């Protein structure tokens, strides 16, 4: 395939060393500039600290790239013309020769295509709260039902309908485990208030689960590892509920729809919590990236 894999990632995959895929939409559309570039670099460093090779994924000038050099990472973070690409947008972006940041759906799909098994992000997309009116359900869910990637995340974004999203994940056959918790994490919050059926407590435990998937004939759907933001780093739940309610009302009033909904709400929360939601989001992402690297090391190492 014409996907361009960086030399470092290609060698690591060839030698069976641990690799962690990272998405780029969180960088281009989920975090404010100029902090986003620093975070992008920091996340790659964290993967290395955890004992794996980082593979940030994006489309640049019509080429799908796995593993970005510093100049490419800077373009994703700084160039305002970089689009948001779900999996269905990959072909049009390649054909038009444009650049775009990949969401969970596009990133997991490309990661799987080049043989990367582990992926880390902040919070998954899912079923939106106004689903009955808009039918807005992130393409992330359908892709998670199709690719056997292990996704380390802090749950699904709390701007969503969490119980409905968990229900969809069950229907789609996506395995969900809590990491060190029997509650499904709540993205900005340590708990969503919803329970999970399975709990895993160590990177080796996640690796053992992945090997069990392999023994069963290879995973045909993703494994979602819900890793909560540490309680002392979570957003104050009362502040979260208040600002989110205002943000959802603002999105409705401004008729924000489609791909714009998630970036709008994330930014609204950052502004109206005076940066507190951003800090919680970053704490969650950092924890997920480090855990994903340790899982990759455990899976490939032993
Ligand atoms: N996690 C974050 N910030 C983000 C996202 C995830 O902490 O911005 C992105 C992911 O790329 C995810 C996307 O796939 O939000 C979901 O967008 P939508 O709801 O439009 O499918
Ligand atoms: Mn959507």
- Counting H and I runs of at least 4 residues, what is the number of helices? 13
The tally of domains stands at 2
| Shape label | globular
Low-confidence residue ranges: none
In words, what does this structure look like?
The model has no long low-confidence stretch (mean pLDDT 96). The chain has 302 residues and is α/β, with parallel strands linked by helices. The chain folds into two domains: 1-116, 3-Layer(aba) Sandwich (Indigoidine synthase fold); 117-302, 3-Layer(aba) Sandwich (Indigoidine synthase fold). The chain has helices at residues 7-14, 25-29, 35-49, 70-78, 90-96, 104-114, 131-134, 139-144, 162-171, 203-215, 237-253, 261-272, 276-301, and strands at residues 4-5, 19-22, 53-60, 63-66, 83-85, 100-102, 118-120, 150-153, 175-179, 199-200, 223-226. The longest helix is centred in the C-terminal third of the chain and has 26 residues, at 276-301. The site of pseudouridine-5'-monophosphate (PSU) has 19 residues, from helix 2, helix 8, helix 12 and helix 13. Pseudouridine-5'-monophosphate is lined by residues 23, 25-26, 29-30, 103-104, 121-123, 125, 138-140, 259, 262, 266, 281, 285.
SSE map:
Layout: E1 4-5, H1 7-14, E2 19-22, H2 25-29, H3 35-49, E3 53-60, E4 63-66, H4 70-78, E5 83-85, H5 90-96, E6 100-102, H6 104-114, E7 118-120, H7 131-134, H8 139-144, E8 150-153, H9 162-171, E9 175-179, E10 199-200, H10 203-215, E11 223-226, H11 237-253, H12 261-272, H13 276-301
Parallel strand pairs: 1-4, 2-3, 2-7, 5-6, 7-8, 8-11, 9-10, 9-11
Antiparallel strand pairs: 3-4, 3-6
Brief overview, please?
By secondary structure, the protein is α/β, with parallel strands linked by helices. The protein contains 13 helices and 11 strands. It has helices at about 5-15, 25-30, 35-50, 70-80, 90-95, 105-115, 130-135, 140-145, 160-170, 205-215, 235-255, 260-270, 275-300; strands spanning about 5, 20, 55-60, 65, 85, 100, 120, 150-155, 175-180, 200, 225.
